[in-house]
Amino acid sequence: MTSAPLDKGLPLKRSRLSHTATYWLVFGAVLALLVAAPLVLPVFWSGFLTEILIWGLLAMSSDLLIGYTGIVSFGHSAFFGLGMYGAAAALLLVSPPNLWLAIVFGLVGAAGAALCVAYFSTRIRDIYFAIATLIFAQIFYVIIFTWTSVTGGENGLIFDQPHFAIPFIVNVPFHTATMHWFVLAVVTASYLTLRRITQSPFGMVLQSIRENEARTRAIGYPVERYKIVSVMISGLFAGLAGALYAIQKEFAAPDFVYFLTSGETVIYNLIGGVGTLVGPIVGAGFFQLLRQFMAQWFGDQFPYLIPLGLVFIAMIIFLPQGLLGFARRWLNK
Amino acid sequence: MSSATEGAEPLVSVEDVHTYYGKSHILHGVSLAVGVGEVVGLLGRNGVGKSTTLKTIMGLVQPRSGAVLFAGKRVTGLPPHKLARMGIGYVPEDRRIFRLLTVSENLRTGLDRHGVTEERRKILLDKVFTYFPVLAERRGQAGGTLSGGEQQMLAIARAMMLEPRVILLDEPTEGLMPRMVAQIRTIIDVLHSERISILLVEQNVPLTLEASQRVYILEKGCVRHHCAASAIDVNDPLIKQYLGV
Amino acid sequence: MASIGQFLHSIPVDLLIIQTINGIVTGMILALVASGLTLIFGIMDVVNFAHGELFMLGAYMGVVAFAMTGNFWLALALAALIIGIFGAALQIVTLRPLIGRSPLNTILATFGISLVLQNYALWQFGPVARKMAEPISAEFTLFYLQYPWYRIVIALLSGAIISALWLFLKFNRYGVWIRATTQDRVMAQAMGIPVPLVYTGVFGLGAAMAAVSGVLFAPFGGVDSSMGLQWVLEAFIVVVVGGMGNLGGSIVAAIFISLLEAYAAVWLDPSQAVIASFVVLILTLLFRPTGLFAAPK
Questions:
Q1: Is A333 an interface residue toward C (CB < 8 Å)?
Q2: Average predicted confidence (pLDDT) for chain B
Q3: Bigger pLDDT: B6 or C222?
Q4: What is the predicted pLDDT for the residue at C268?
Q5: pLDDT attached to residue C211
Q6: What is the pLDDT of chain C when averaged over all its residues?
Q7: Residue A15 pLDDT level (bands cut at 50, 70, 90)
Q8: Considering only CB atoms, which chain C residues are within 8 Å of A316?
Q9: For residue range B85-131, what is the model confidence (pLDDT) as tens digits?
């Protein structure tokens, strides 16, 4: 396994260099566009783009499992929701509200949920894993929904947005553009981290589990442990997305812990293209934009999930690779 | 070459078939023919594509190119259940008994076709129960509880329920006791006497040479040799070359 | 000791008996839903996420047909027929092209179907739950309650349908086809069984059974577009606890799970009582992934 990069490295050196260069060029261009966006876009659309980035982060976290480890989680709403309620706890309990504390609390909440799910669900495979994650998410949903004294139950929690604060340097309230940049910075850092993880030896083992679990085990890798770690990592990034969402929207609601959030996360992945990391972000954007346009054209009550669900089914049948599937190899080089 | 077949026109013919499993190329242009009422042996080492040839004829794997003809009609691409109804019986290598179905129910899967009258059912069942009395004794027992030899008999009997014109018989004597092997040998002769064609894949060379009229020898997915079964014997250099260890 | 005595004394026996009857009644409906689900899984490895939606649409069909015909039993038959045909069509359009692909593809496709159907129902029938009158209004006295005979009839009817299904699978030609295909689809084809048709038929049969359960449940639960998810989750639990693809196991598990939830509801809020069955599922997956009630293979 360790000798593989060497074998390929030498003859491919030139094309590799140019691939790296183009990759970073494209990356820089897209990033520049996203940075410039709030300067150009109206406030509503700028906020909308921020939201897409957050959903993209959630989708990307789930892609680590679907696209790399080869297991489908229907429980990402739990990680997202716990991140959200964790951040809410920090923002409500600590005064003045602190941005970093909110994120840390969100991560801790998600880590707790992820540990539970990872420990129990990774012992079982395929559809059983999917069902188990779904059931876990429902458990968290029922707890949050019914524990009204702590979680606010059906109504959720409302709180104030923290300031953007780095001790002794800045302490300013967020506005639409700075919130966008902050989220963009977090999502970009997360993308680069996840990309690094998928390309590391650890990531290679995950992909080998996806390709052939039995063989990976036979070679001597502790498959369950790798799966647990991948679910944990995935859960942490999903929790990060939840915390960001709470910070941007200034509320936490049980709806986001509901199964539909998990389902939509899986849809983002399949529409965008699993195993690409950026595909799911594109999928989230595509989904949210379509939903937004349909709401504008046909009214708020329009059942957007009917056409989007049909698109989703058609894509599974005719385009299982997703929108960015054609670029999978290029993106993962 | 086809002059060796008994009838004017072969019942089954395979023409230049190339079959793949995913990316691996298994059959590299296999051609063979089975005449009406003829027993044809297919010999070769493990992994040369004998079973794949049978599966290709049965429509269980689709060839990438080439054709399978049955009774003069091109049947490539037809689903297996249509081929079964047209009169191709299949007895797979691992027998594939419906383990949780009783012996009677296993046989029934081949009888529940259009146009099988009560009388006909009875005749067909009586016939296999005469040849394989043990199946009659165990008719209410789950298929999975039978011994290996009994399962092999059930697999053959089950294929016979389709009133096939040809039976594709994949390693019927594999792992059986000599007494059972003799019984299988007998049933092949019985089927032959009823003018049911057989394409027989076997590791047991003496049995194949005895039971068949013609043999094909396969190597690496190609037919290397083809002759009348009486033209070679077990000690033939050809056998050593293609089948010896 | 005293505290145990107090605890035992505090158990409301009358309530437990009522909950036992309630548990068996819902258990029988759940068994009907779950047997369709497990039949579909057993034969084509499809975990049908949309099964709850077929239950829900069946219930709506029942409400609509009842409003039109005024006859509950006719409405029941119509709903089963329409949803059965609909299910078969759904299988042909969405699942048949996925045959041979990974089971995860089919679970995702059925998940998409479930989203579409659920939102269609919400759009078509609105968010307010529909009520349906019980076809049998007689009641009997159970402690301090007037217990509707209808619920007892439901349990018996569900039992009768499940028995009919069992007889069909055991003796009918198509039942034998279904069992043979479940065990070995390749060999079933080689024996002349039209396997793609069997798949479609089983999916239609499962859909019809879900619809029947939906209509039977409608008079005492009300019908709304979100009821499907709750039922499919319970049915998943039942199917896993009973052993995937194992019909007998599913029926036992359905009653077991429903009783458990009914008893849990004595002490907990009914919305929290489902956690009891979630826990059973997780324990099953951990310690007996082949199912608690699975017959040895």
A1: no
A2: 90
A3: C222
A4: 82
A5: 96
A6: 89
A7: low
A8: 98, 105, 108-109, 112
A9: 999 999 999 999 999 999 999 999 999 988 889 999 999 999 999 99
Tens digits of residue pLDDT in B213-243: 999 999 989 999 898 988 888 788 878 777 7
Mean pLDDT of A268-272: 92
Nearest to C274 among A72, A131, A142 (CB): A142
Q: Give the C-alpha separation, A236 to C71, whole Å.
A: 55
Which CATH number applies to B2-95+167-243? Answer: 3.40.50.300
Q: Which two tokens stand for residue B215?
A: 């043999």
- Token pair for A327: 């670029």
pTM across the whole model: 0.88
Nearest CA in chain C to B159: C191
* Terminal Cα-to-Cα distance of chain A (whole angstroms): 16
Residues of chain A in contact with residue C275, where contact means CB-CB under 8 angstroms, are 139, 142-143
Residue C24 CA to its chain's centroid (Å): 13
Whether residue A316 and residue C105 make contact (CB cut-off 8 A), yes or no, is yes
Q: Cα separation of C189 and B81, whole Å?
A: 5
**Domain residue extents for chain A:** 50-164+171-258
Residue C159: burial class (beta carbons within 10 Å; 0-12, 13-18, 19+): middle
Distances (CA, A) of A319 to A73, A330, B150, C39, C235: 21, 18, 48, 29, 30
Answer for the pair C200, C60: CB distance below 8 angstroms, yes or no. no
- On whether the CB atoms of residues B15 and B166 are closer than 8 A, the answer is no
A210, pLDDT greater than 50: yes
Beta carbons of C182 and C47 less than 8 angstroms apart: no
Residue ranges per structural domain of chain B: 2-95+167-243
Look at residue A56 and tell me whether its pLDDT is greater than 50.
yes
Asked if residues A138 and C52 have their Cβ atoms less than 8 Å apart, the reply is no
Rounded-to-integer distance, Cα C55 and Cα C48, Å: 12
Distance from CA of B193 to the nearest CA of C (A): 23
What is the nearest CA distance from C246 to chain B, expressed in angstroms?
Answer: 12
Cα A308 vs. chain centroid, distance in angstroms? 20
Cβ–Cβ contact A319 with C under 8 A:
no
Q: Is the pLDDT of residue A10 over 60?
A: no
- Out of B60, B98, B162, name the one closest to residue C192 (CB): B162
**Gap from A177 CA to chain C (nearest CA, Å):** 35
DSSP-H helix ranges across chain A: 4-9, 13-40, 43-63, 76-93, 99-121, 126-146, 148-151, 176-199, 201-211, 213-219, 223-249, 259-272, 278-298, 305-318, 328-332
pLDDT over 60 at C232, yes or no: yes
ipTM field: 0.90
A266/C111 Cβ within 8 A: yes
Q: What is the full DSSP assignment across A90-130?
A: HHHHSSS-BHHHHHHHHHHHHHHHHHHHHHHHTTS-HHHHH
Question: What is the rounded average pLDDT of the residues A173-183?
Answer: 89
Amino acid C294 reads: A
> What pairs with residue B223 in β-bridges?
B218
Distance (Å, whole) CA C283 – CA C290: 12
Q: Is A169 strand, coil or helix?
A: coil
